[in-house]
Design goal:
alpha+beta, two-stranded antiparallel ribbon, single chain
């Protein structure tokens, strides 16, 4: 019989790669686009919606590319 001991919680091997990928994706979106609320709609408050996971309340935004002139 073998007794295998683990120290601490088990962790996904690709978790750090996934977090870095999501971070880089979001940073590039913010760098390349302008996000504004749609006319007549409000941004949600910071209270999350409960369920299987926590998520933000539904909201609408308008996304416009940031155009930088090459001068």
């Amino acid at each position: 019989n073998y007794n295998i001991s683990f120290s601490g919680k088990r962790k996904c091997l690709g978790e750090s790669v996934a977090k870095t990928t999501v971070f880089l994706f979001l940073v590039n979106m913010v760098k390349e686009f302008k996000f504004t609320p749609v006319s007549g709609s409000e941004l949600p408050d910071c209270e999350p919606v409960g369920g299987l996971t926590l998520m933000p309340k539904d909201f609408e935004v308008q996304i416009e590319p940031i155009i930088i002139s090459a001068t």
